[in-house]
Each structure stands twice: as C-alpha cells, then as structure tokens.
Amino acid sequence: MWIKSSDQARERGITGLETAIILIAFVVVASVFAFTVLSTGIFASERSKETVFSGIQEAQSTLEPRGSVVAFKGVLSDSTTTVYKLTFVVSNAVAGEPVDLTPDFTADDSGTDPDVSAGANSVTVISYSDKNQFLNDLPWSVSWLGNNDGDNLLENNEKAEITVWLLNRENGTAIGTAGSVAFQTTEGGMTSSSTVLATGDQFTIQIHPPNGAVLNIRRSLPSQLDTVMDLN
Known about the structure:
Helix content: 10-25%
C-alpha cells in the first residue's frame, strides 16, 4: 500500500479561481491609478489653457498713453499756487478688448468744475501718489477725440482724453487765457494746501481698468508753474 509522505502532505498551491481574483485586483488598481493620472493631466491642461486665455485677455485690455500729460495751474483761496487738474490721452494698446471708461463725473462748460454723472457706474479707478500722500479714487472725467461710436468703451482706433481732478472742494481760481475763473472741485482729491502739488514735485497717476494691466504715469512739475504745462 502506498503511503503519502509528510512533505507531500504539506505542499500547497493556488487554484485557477484564486489566480483570476489576484489578476482582477491588479487590473482594478492599475485602472484607478491610470484614471487618476489622466484626470490630473486633463485638469492641469485645462488650467494651463485658462491661464493662457487670461493672459491674452489681460494683454488685449491694456491702455497706453498717447502724447504728453498737461497740467493746469490754479490758485487756492489762501493764495497757494498749485495744479488743480491733469489731462492726458489714452488708447487701446493692442487693438484688442474694449476698455470701459464710464466716468462718475462730467466736466461742465467752463472746464473748471466736474459734475456728478447721475446713474453712472464707473469700473475704472484712477489713483494718485506722491511723497506726501496716496489717494486711491480720484474724480475724473473723459472726452472723446476724433473717431468714436458714442459709447464709453475705448475700442480700436479710438482715443479718450482723461481729466483727473486733484483738489477737494477748495474754492479758488483757475488761471486761464481768458482770465481767472472760479472753480470748485469734487470730493476725493487733496484736502490740504500743505500737500498740494508745488514746483519740482514728482507724482504718479495709476489707471486701474476692470481688465488688463495698470497704466502708470509718472511726471514731475517744472521749477515754475505756468498757466498750462506740457509734462513730457
């Protein structure tokens, strides 16, 4: 009679069913890993595409200055001579997306006092800084030069002249070629005669459109304040 040895009794093996279960487990794990990798790659690709499109939109909504900054002299009620407004011309930098230049103020007929535009909703902010102060939301108005379609969007081949009003409810005199004209500017400007612009002062105007890069304009006043000054 044949008797099975003890070594043969201890031998083990796997069946076809166990092998199939193990293979299926490997396939499932590999599938989950592959799905995760593919999803991460697709997400990263979409984010990269959004970044590129955002950069293009920013570049296409950029303002650029056209010409010089012009400063206008005024005299406050305490005889302090200063600059009460600045004007400059801007256009669309790369003929791309329109820039919304809806102003909260409109210059009156005399050009010395801006009036509040009823119902206006300005989305472009103009700030001012010098060695003495920072004003984050100056009053400003706009007029359109040459070709334009009648709206407040700065589009291709359009030019807008922006006037920035610097003083804050100060009664004074705007010096003009036709004589002296009383003026009173709006709230949001400079409040003290000790901090208004004087000869030799350097200042920076920043235009913050709703989209696109911030436009920085940095200028210095001459050693003598004339009626109208071209600040190259």
